[in-house]
Specification:
Blueprint lengths: L1 H7 L16 H4 L11 H27 L3 H6 L1 H23 L3 H5 L2 E4 L9 H16 L1 H9 L6 H6 L2 E4 L6
Antiparallel strand pairs: 1-2
Helix pairs in contact: 3-5, 5-7, 7-8
């Protein structure tokens, strides 16, 4: 019982159980225990920030500059939404590919990583993650998956093999 209490309070270091680990790999590859997905509340806050910082400007650009007016958007709503979704996908994939963060993720010190390597996921994984994220948002079951799993991974995390981790900055 004493060991558990010490670990819980952070008084002891984590033990690496992998047998073949070189000292040079210690800095590059984090332990899988450190790669648990970030809390759902932080990811939700980042999503809301991204909605206002990425999606809202795209809505205004498409409605008023591309379609001309609200009435023009109303007449060609399907075309307008396809443009918005395509632009949103390009912008979010660029943020993920270049920095592994969107503005909302940066605000809450969240990073997109591949749990096996601890580095940024490849473009195919990012594209799969985006498509599955939209699917998870549209499905009722996809919204509850993070609360059902101990790892807090969402449906899109499981399918794409990526995870958003929380790494608080030391300057705050």
């Amino acid at each position: 019982m004493g060991r558990w209490r010490d670990v819980k309070q952070g008084k002891t270091e984590k033990i690496d159980t992998r047998k073949s680990r070189r000292k040079s790999d210690a800095k590059e590859e984090p332990l899988l225990a450190d790669a648990l997905c970030a809390p759902v509340t932080l990811r939700l806050k980042a999503f809301i920030v991204d909605t206002f910082m990425i999606t809202m400007p795209l809505l205004y650009i498409v409605i008023y500059l591309v379609m001309g007016s609200r009435e023009g958007f109303k007449e060609h709503m399907a075309q307008g939404w396809m443009i918005i979704l395509a632009l949103h996908m390009v912008v979010v994939l660029l943020f993920w590919y270049l920095k592994a963060q969107t503005p909302g993720m940066k605000a809450y010190d969240l990073h997109l990583v591949d749990p096996q390597t601890g580095k940024k996921p490849g473009f195919v994984k990012l594209l799969l993650r985006y498509v599955m994220l939209q699917t998870a948002i549209l499905s009722i079951i996809g919204l509850f998956v993070p609360w059902l799993l101990k790892s807090r991974a969402g449906l899109h995390d499981l399918v794409s093999g990526s995870c958003i981790v929380w790494r608080p900055s030391k300057t705050r």
